[in-house]
Amino acid sequence: MPNSALHVARTGLEAQDARMRVIANNLANVGTTGFKRDRADFATLAYQQQRVAGQQSNGDTAYAIGLNLGTGVQVMGTSRIETQGTLNTTGNSLDLALDGPGFFEVELPSGQLGYTRSGSFSLSADGEIVTGQGYAVQPGLSVPQGTQSISVAPDGTVSATVADNAAPVQVGQLTIASFINPAGLAPRGDNFLTETAASGAAETGPGGQDGRGQVRQGMLEASNVNVVEELVEMIEAQRAYEINSKMVSAVDEMLRNANQTL
Fold first, then answer.
1. How far apart are the C-alpha atoms of 16 and 10, rounded to whole Å?
2. pTM
3. Do residues 22 and 39 make contact, with C-beta atoms less than 8 angstroms apart?
4. 195: how many CB neighbours lie within 10 A of its CB?
5. 149-188 in b/e burial notation, b at 16+ Cβ within 10 A?
6. Which string of DSSP letters, residue by residue, matches 110-121?
7. Which of 16, 133, 217, 222 is exposed most, by the fewest CB atoms within 10 A?
8. b or e along 212-251 (b: 16 or more beta carbons within 10 Å of the residue's beta carbon)?
9. CA-based R_g, the chain, Å
10. What is the DSSP string of 222-249?
């Protein structure tokens, strides 16, 4: 029994340590554009069934309850909370935010498509709209030389006002990607997510159609991390860790007393 209690307490320590790591990552990214907070999900480990409910206790009666001893807890996974962050006005014509579900598409160096809520874009030397890392936003758009201003419509249509031409020229349209299960996207760092079997295939189209969010020019989406909530979670995890630590100390003392007595 003491050895089993030690094992259960150890799983509790490991689970709360993982929870603290998730909370720490959330707080570290409180200022990251488009960041979505994570939540650690837990599940019980297998139970040791020493007596099954309904098992015969003697020839005429059966046990009304069973004898099941838990073996601890495990981290089942981390869930990304997809609630939208606050849209902050920047005034930069190439700062774009999505008001509603969806992701911007970006071509990563490997050729794979990445998906992001961070719309902090700029122009390359060739006039392409790119991310801060220089990755081309999809579908690739090239702004003509001599462009004085750029406008992006809510559906993602990009227009440029060129010198000596009062009428804006349409240069293309940014498509917005949506997924049947966006929580299944795999985080890759640098604010990028990639498609997985769990997320389903990307469905792309103009902003504001088929449930996709609209593009808001001159704005950026803030992280959806709530510092107060994360601090409460941190205190809860800290207290749970301390309790499991005390359990280890208590079981250790029980074993020491047993060795001295027997």
1. 10
2. 0.86
3. yes
4. 18
5. ebebbebbbbbbebeeeeeeeebbbbbbbbbeebeebeee
6. TS-EEEES--B-
7. 133
8. bbbbbbbbbbbbbbeeeebeebbeebeebbeebeebbeeb
9. 27
10. PP---HHHHHHHHHHHHHHHHHHHHHHH
Q: What is the DSSP letter of 244?
A: H
Q: How far apart are CA 67 and CA 4, in angstroms?
A: 15
First to last CA, the chain: 16
CA atoms of 115 and 196, how far apart (whole Å): 12
Token pair of 109 as six digits: 């160096």
Q: Cα-flanking dihedrals φ and ψ of residue 67, to 5°?
A: -120, 95
What CA–CA distance (Å, rounded) separates 32 from 258?
54
91-138 pLDDT, tens digit each: 899 999 999 999 999 999 998 999 999 999 999 888 899 999 999 998
d(CA 101, CA 83): 9
Between 45 and 146, the more confident residue is 45
CA of residue 168 relative to chain centroid, distance: 38
Query: What is the per-residue DSSP string for 197-226?
Result: TTT---EEE-TTSTTPPEEEETEEEPP---
Structure tokens given for 188 = 């890759």
Q: Which residues pair with 51 in a beta bridge?
A: 67
Residue 167 in tokens: 């009428």
d(CA 259, CA 240) in angstroms, rounded, equals 29
Match 């071509």 to its residue by tokens: 107
Strands 73-80 and 38-44: antiparallel
Which amino acid is located at 204 in the chain? T
What pLDDT shows up at residue 201? 94
DSSP state of 183: G
Q: Which residue's structure tokens are 């995890």?
A: 237
Tokens of 191: 């604010």
